Fold this sequence. Notes:
The chain is α/β, with parallel strands linked by helices. The chain is about 25% helix and about 25% strand. Strands 6-7-17-16-11-12-13-14-10 form a nine-stranded mixed sheet. A six-stranded mixed sheet has the order 2-1-3-4-5-15, with helices on both faces. A two-stranded antiparallel ribbon has the order 8-9. Helix 6 (about 225-230) packs parallel to helix 8 (about 260-275) and helix 8 packs parallel to helix 9. The radius of gyration is 19 Å and the shape is globular. The mean pLDDT is about 95.
Amino acid sequence: MRYGDFINNNGTIGFIAPAFGCTTEPYKSAFQNALYTWQAMGYRTALGPNVYKEDGIGTSTDPAACGREIMDWYLSKQNDALISCGGGELMCEDLASVDFEQLAEADPKWFMGYSDNTNLVFLLATLCDTAAVYGPCAPAFGMEPWHPALSDAFGILTGEKAVMQNGISAITVQGYDRFERTPAKDEAHPLLPYNVTEPVMRRGFPEAAGRPLAAEGRLLGGCLDVLVTLIGTKYDRVREFAQRYKEDGILWFFEACDLGMIAIRRAVWQMREAGWFENCRGILVGRPWHYGEEVFGMDRFEAVMGIVEDLHVPVFMDLDIGHLPPMMPLVVGSRAKARLVDNDFHIEMELRP
């Protein structure tokens, strides 16, 4: 596994729009304020050609142009790391114009984004053995003040979160106290921080009150909506990835956006039947966007556990991952150790080859 260099104090952060660009409020104003914030911190910023485009269907512009932007800006020496401008719907269509063999041979560079950006974050790991960060998109950094989750995410890119342990950089993040159900930010108030009003209640399976639940392995995953679209395509090299890292095993994580409880259960079933859970050592599940929904008496816990319980691996649920912020930034491809004691969760990610 390869890792990008951390951004220096006077480094350049590049921004690309492989999914949506920053063209509507509150995202446009939030993005512009994020640029001002980074510049005030001493960083330079560089914007890709699609950042302010909106003529695409489910992406910022034509998928071929989005793919070219990914290639040009990842291979460029004019930026030190890349952050996506937003999620989207059809970033999968960009992939035909992305040369993953060339990316695998290029110098590694940090890329950060989530949701539809799973298409790049996940495939950089599985196809290129190159780590990426499943974390906030650029407009989130326009809020004032930053939530600790944003400091955590940017601290990964700069190395401020990294400590050396036996010659290996290790990054630890932990769950946050409350989460947002109803955003306060809107078109008229684009810079408001997360409206964290809801207490976090995490669960682990098998349940062990007062005793730690732990798992470790190569961290792999993303948005469930996107992951299942990749199954069975030419981009599906998950079993090969699991074989390369068989000594570590795989620590899966996923969260869902559009998928309701029935669709989540179908998706997890599809992952299992495709062999994606071979050599699985544990599963981390974020709060779904349809948090609290029940169908046929099935809630978010049964939607997952009904499929994976017979894997007999630790499962951690209602974690701070994904579309109900704040979200813990996760280094996809790292060697990770997850631990839950009662309601306290933390994950240590080693930047191990």
